[in-house]
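Researcher: Please predict.
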Amino acid sequence: MARAGLYKSDVQRARDSLISQSIYPSIDAVRTALGNTGSKTTIHKYLKELEDEEGAGPRKVSISSALQDLVERLSSRLYDEAEESVAKAKNVLDRREQEYVHANRLLQDDLSAAREALQSLEAQLDREAESHAETRAALQAEIVARHTAEQQVIGLNERLGENEQHRRSLEEKHAHAREALEHYRQSIKDQRDQDQRRHEQQMHQVQAELRQLQMVVSGKHEEVTRLNQEGARLVAELSHTKQSLYEQQSQGRKMEQTIEQLRTLQQQAVDMERQLVSKTAELEVMTEQLSGVESQMASAKARVHELELQLADANARVQAQEQIGEQLRRYIDNILITPPAAIHPNN
């Protein structure tokens, strides 16, 4: 580049000094004489103007001087073209630098947006992880409740089996008691019928004998003594009959005691029937409880299935969020690693 304050007179003085020293005033020689200052283009322009001013007449110079001058002129033209190319390249470089700054600004904006999206995804991922943990805890609680319900069902089934065995035992005892009571009732009835028939036979026999005695008394007054004796005999027989009646009454009292025992057995049978009814009601209550527990188990199974579905959905969403986060991280890494020229090849 030319120094500030380089004038045509300075170039002329340097040129004249070189000529006086028998040195060809080339551009490099003049620039050296000027202290390596000034632009070669400016020096070349001033030298050309000085040559034009000194006259249009041809000068005789040696061939070597002419070649040297031609070389100097070509070098000056090449230098000018090179400076023009450098200026163009500098303009292109400045334009590309501006484009790079603009692209870098856009990339910084994209990077900021991507970082914000990544932070949002990470926060969402944390929330999904918390929801996943809560779902897992709820699932564990449902599993524990299900295990507890199964244990309750097993205990109720065992109690149900025990009550069923007890109910069967009570039914067998009740059936045996009924059979014994029926057998006793039948034996008492048969005994009573037999005693009644025997008593009726005895009564008929006594009545027949009394009628016969009356006929003998009315027909035969002469046999009073015999009849008195017969009466004494009848009194004896009556005493015997009274004794028999007393024995029958004693037997009747025994039968009443037996009937009382039978009533006691009947009361026991009634109590056993009440126990059977109570056990049956308790069995029905336990059956209802078992049905309730089974319905609770069905609800718990449905809840467990629902929680398993929610857990699978949460796992799928977490995996999807992780994949999106991984893709976004790769994209950001590629943006940070890839140069702007590779990102915007058209510029």
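Model: Residues 56-62, 339-347 have pLDDT under 50 and may be disordered.
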